[in-house]
Amino acid sequence: MSCCFRASAQPSAISGTREDKKLTTKLTKALDGFHGTAGVYVRHLKTNRVASVNADSLFPTASMIKVPIMCGIFDKINRGDIKYDQTLLYRDSLKYDNGIVGSFRDSTKIGIPKVIHLMISQSDNTGSLWLQALAGGGATINQWLELNGFKNTKVNSRTPGRKEGQAKYGWGQTTPHEMTELVAMIHDGKAVNAAASERMYRFLGIQFWDGEALSQIPPSIKTAAKSGAVNQAKSEVVAVHAPHGDYVFCITTKNQQDQRWEQDNEGYELIRTIAAIIWQHFEPKSKWKPDPDSRKFWF
Questions:
Q1: Paired residues of 247 in beta bridges
Q2: Domains within the chain, CATH numbers bracketed
Q3: Mean pLDDT of all residues in 72-94
Q4: Is 0.85 surpassed by the pTM of this model?
């Protein structure tokens, strides 16, 4: 029931923001010529400077939808419907693909925290769909999103009434603006509650897939992130604890001409370019640059 949810400040209601025109110009130039559609939103949390390009347009989330799913699970835990340390029983009927969870033997026992970790760090699809159902399904997660001000972010897959959205956007849909502010809400301790936000933020800080945006940020810098990819769309949302103030950004693409699953896919390259531009803009005195040889160790 809706009375069980706690509404927080809406993304559009964040006050005191002002445009960073120089950064907007840099981002616009970087997106120019991309063979597809791209959008980006960034907010520097200390100064509330923002920059955006197509930031309120709808894009596929791909695996970024696992951030809302995680919020749904923690809301369920907060309301006492499930326990954080609860042990789950895996059944073969849950299998979606051959990821880690999908490779379990029938009747394998696993704790909820480990499934959440696999969903966020490894982007495990079977585990994510399992957690989506455990959270009450896509409709319940969408209700939480709606009441917390995220009007455009939706879980589509396995959600009643969302077939049209799924056909167009896949598992989920969002805008760069909203996905940025959802992670900022977790960063600020305002998603579900402070304790839940802290635990979710720790999960987001453990990433196996770090070859795109994270590869352009010094490894000594704390980050929290979630990426996503399907044939025609690539995306990533990242919070960065930079020396001159934390910032959060989201870069998304859709309708890509380049659908290769290769490291130099145009979408992946754009994400790296945008991440580097934003880092260098806020940290102009940083001497750190990715070692060219490090590329051989990216996924």
A1: 44, 240
A2: 9-63+141-297 (3.40.710.10)
A3: 98
A4: yes
